[in-house]
Specification:
The complex is a heterodimer. Chain A is mainly β. Chain A has one helix and eight strands; from the N terminus they run βββαβββββ. Chain A is globular. In chain B, the strands form six sheets. In chain B, strands 1, 2, 3, 4, 5, 6 and 20 form a seven-stranded mixed β-sheet that branches. Chain B is α/β, with parallel strands linked by helices. Chain B has three domains: about 15-145 and about 295-390, FAD/NAD(P)-binding domain (3-Layer(bba) Sandwich), CATH 3.50.50.60; about 150-290, 3-Layer(bba) Sandwich (FAD/NAD(P)-binding domain); about 400-470, BFD-like [2Fe-2S]-binding domain (Arc Repressor Mutant, subunit A), CATH 1.10.10. Classes of the chains: A mainly beta, B alpha/beta. The interface between A and B is large, with 50 and 62 residues. Strand 1 (about 5) of chain A pairs antiparallel with strand 9 (about 170-175) of chain B, so a sheet runs across the interface.
């Protein structure tokens, strides 16, 4: 998957760790939100809408719209933009 | 007896893990909240500053994670666009004031209930708690206003703020080719920042015509700092060959599973798209911002009176000159009491902080001003407010825009209610927001109308001819935002897997 979102290259992020997205390992850095890690790994659609089954992803970026919901470590409906990635986080997104 | 009060009693019976008291609770750690906390603490009061985000700063002074290396001069010069690096630096200087023995900062903490007698219910990862505050200062900020179009729910379509926050707070560039649409100075500022950070800007699609835009710009005469900043941005954008499409809107975002392009069209002076002017632009990211709407749900829930701010076409929380709301002991500062920008927010934080501290008997000097005579601060504030209000035309949304939203466009993203369904309901008699919510669940979903409420109000107004003030606001409900039951209360559930609204919404 080619990522359209890119980390600013000159910003030093420390040492990466691994989280999994639907079982596949991706890289994340301390302080990153799950949304950032997902976007940088090329995931844009995070879930499907409740009624229309349409792809949804990050929208407001500040925790008010609840469109970027993902499952983290078994807890469903977590806002990817407000949840920090932790080493070993098990993230589930709905593939489109 | 209202339903809400019986719910409050139910909640009161539940056993909390902790129960705290504080002299002053400040809700929201943006510019207004930080200024309020620092001011009250310096006056002598003990303050608890509560914010849902991991780090204080709010959206305006959003700080990068501590783990990112942002200490060096090199970072300031090279890693992020200068305006963002400076913004983060200003925020950092302001945040330094929070290192005060009388200030307790509670990050990652959501206020999900507030009562008129100043009891706050909190939700944090470590559990739920309740705080009784002697005084409360609500500095809950604002949200972005969005005008929807077909395809706006596609991944890759976000608010302008989302792109800016990702860049300054996370060091992430949202897309490679970015189209920005909406109205107001934020579009050009964000475009210049995204450009400097390495993105290509497909175009800026500005609702106002060039004449209208420049006419608004003339109001900056006298506000030289802002005018200079605006002109420098324009120069930067023009030099980079960024197309600025004045008097235009996005009518549709194209793509299957994510955005791949957009159709834009010119509009007449009322905001109606003109047939035959459509133009297709390829882009991988589309960002929308039509100004801001005050985040008033906490003050509404507490029963504070609201007023319709005709400058910015939105309801805001009413206060007196001391920034106290209609509910004794609850103050409001910053965008929640009317869109005003960062300078106004900082001044209002100080004023509210002074007034709240004074009510508790603290009269020590705060920020060089004797709280008992906050006169100079008052004058500065009135001036800053007037200066910002003179710019309100830049954010003005044209009413006909909402008439032209196609019937099949989803307006309520959570409940997937279309513009057509809203119009049908409005025609059938649902002429107020609360009626519309009961009619077709619009505003009843997870976002609780934060995104769609202002849009729905405009659609009703354009359909029925009623003014926005009469269309009204959605009634605020406990819990303010979704949070886990098991975290909010001490309930020993083996698995709190279902995130549910703590109390049913309607």
């Amino acid at each position: 998957m080619t990522a359209l979102s890119k980390c600013v290259p000159t910003l030093e992020r420390g040492v990466p760790f691994t989280i999994t997205v639907n079982g596949q390992a991706i890289e994340a850095y301390a302080g990153e939100s799950i949304a950032t890690a997902l976007l940088a790994a090329g995931h844009r659609a995070f879930r499907k809408s409740d009624a229309g089954d349409a792809p949804r992803g990050l929208f407001c970026g500040m925790g008010i719209c609840f469109d970027c919901l993902v499952t983290v470590d078994g807890l469903p409906n977590q806002r990817a933009c407000m949840t920090e990635a932790r080493e070993g986080s098990d993230v589930r997104v709905s593939e489109t | 007896m209202s339903l809400v009060s019986s719910r409050h009693r139910t909640i009161a019976r539940l056993h909390y893990r902790t129960m705290n008291t504080t002299e002053i609770a400040v809700i929201g750690a943006g510019p207004a909240g930080i200024a309020a906390a620092v001011t009250t603490a310096e006056a002598g009061a003990h303050v608890t500053l509560i914010d849902e985000n991991p780090r204080p700063g709010g959206q305006y002074y959003k700080q990068p994670p501590f783990a990112f290396d942002t200490r060096t001069e090199r970072w300031r010069q090279r890693s992020l666009p200068l305006s963002l690096a400076e913004n983060i630096q200003h925020g950092r200087e302001l945040l330094a004031g929070l290192n005060h023995s009388r200030i307790t900062v509670r990050p990652n903490t959501l206020v999900w209930n507030i009562t008129a007698d100043r009891v706050l219910d909190l939700f944090a990862p470590e559990g739920g708690s309740r705080v009784q505050a002697k005084r409360v200062i609500v500095a809950s900020g604002a949200y972005e206003r969005v005008v929807p179009f077909g395809g706006w729910t596609l991944p890759g379509v976000t608010t302008v703020g989302a792109a800016q926050l990702l860049l300054k707070g996370q060091g992430l560039l949202l897309g490679q080719k970015i189209l920005l649409c909406g109205t107001g100075p934020l579009l050009q500022l964000a475009a210049a920042q995204l450009l400097d950070a390495g993105a290509e800007i497909a175009a800026i699609v500005e609702l106002h015509s060039r004449t209208e835009f420049l006419g608004q710009g003339l109001k900056l005469l006298g506000q030289w700092g802002k005018l200079g900043q605006g002109m420098a941005q324009q120069k930067r954008l023009v030099e980079a060959g960024v197309p600025i499409k004045y008097g235009s809107i996005v009518v549709e975002a194209l793509g299957e599973n994510q955005i791949e392009g957009a159709v834009i069209a010119k509009v007449d002076s009322n905001g109606h798209p003109l047939a035959g002017t459509e133009e297709k632009i390829y882009t991988d990211t589309l960002c929308i911002n039509f100004g801001f709407v005050p985040a008033t749900e906490l003050t509404r829930l507490a029963g504070c009176e609201q007023y319709f701010d005709s400058h910015f076409d939105a309801f805001a929380t009413k206060t007196n000159d001391e920034l106290e709301t209609s509910v004794r002991g609850i103050f409001a500062a910053g965008e929640v009491r009317g869109i005003g920008g960062v300078e106004v927010a900082l001044l209002e934080g100080k004023l509210a902080g002074n007034a709240a501290a004074r009510q508790l008997g603290y009269a020590a000097k705060a920020n060089g001003h004797d709280p008992s005579t906050s006169q100079p601060l008052q004058r500065e504030w009135q001036k800053a407010r007037a200066a910002f209000e003179s710019l309100s035309g830049m954010f003005a949304v044209k009413r006909d825009l909402f008439q032209s939203i196609a019937d099949d466009v989803i307006v309520c993203r959570c409940e997937e209610v279309t513009a057509g369904a809203r119009r049908d309901a409005a025609r059938a008699g649902a002429q107020q927001l609360n009626a519309l919510k009961a009619w077709n669940r619009c505003g009843m979903g997870r976002c609780q109308g934060r995104v769609c409420g202002p849009i729905a109000a405009q659609i009703i107004a354009s359909e029925t001819g009623a003014n926005l003030e009469l269309v009204g606001m959605l009634t605020a409900r406990v819990a303010m935002t979704k949070c886990a039951c098991g975290g909010a209360w001490r309930i020993n559930w083996s698995s709190v897997s279902q995130i549910a609204r703590v109390c049913s919404t309607s």
